[in-house]
Amino acid sequence: MCGTYHSMMNFEVRVVTPNDFKAYLQQRIDGKTNAEALRAINQPPLAVTTHPFDTRRGELAPQPVG
C-alpha cells in the first residue's frame, strides 16, 4: 500500500498508561493478535477514529455533462 497511496495511509494513535502499554506489549510478545492485546487492556479492538480509504472514489464521482 505504501508508495502510490502513501498519502492515503491511515492509522490511529492511542495514548495509554505506561502499565497498559507494557501489558499490551507482553500480550503481543505472547503471540496475541493486536485486537486481543487491545481487549486485554480494555481498549476497543478496532480503530475508532479512522475510516478505510474508499477505492471507489472514481466510480462515485458525478459524470461530466455535455
Automatic annotation (TrEMBL):
<dbReference type="InterPro" id="IPR002429">
    <property type="entry name" value="CcO_II-like_C"/>
</dbReference>
<dbReference type="GO" id="GO:0016491">
    <property type="term" value="F:oxidoreductase activity"/>
</dbReference>
<dbReference type="GO" id="GO:0004129">
    <property type="term" value="F:cytochrome-c oxidase activity"/>
</dbReference>
<keyword id="KW-0560">Oxidoreductase</keyword>
<dbReference type="InterPro" id="IPR008972">
    <property type="entry name" value="Cupredoxin"/>
</dbReference>
<feature type="domain" description="Cytochrome oxidase subunit II copper A binding">
    <location>
        <begin position="1"/>
        <end position="27"/>
    </location>
</feature>
<feature type="region of interest" description="Disordered">
    <location>
        <begin position="46"/>
        <end position="66"/>
    </location>
</feature>
<dbReference type="GO" id="GO:0005507">
    <property type="term" value="F:copper ion binding"/>
</dbReference>
<dbReference type="GO" id="GO:0016020">
    <property type="term" value="C:membrane"/>
</dbReference>
<protein>
    <submittedName>
        <fullName>Cytochrome C oxidase subunit II</fullName>
        <ecNumber>1.9.3.1</ecNumber>
    </submittedName>
</protein>
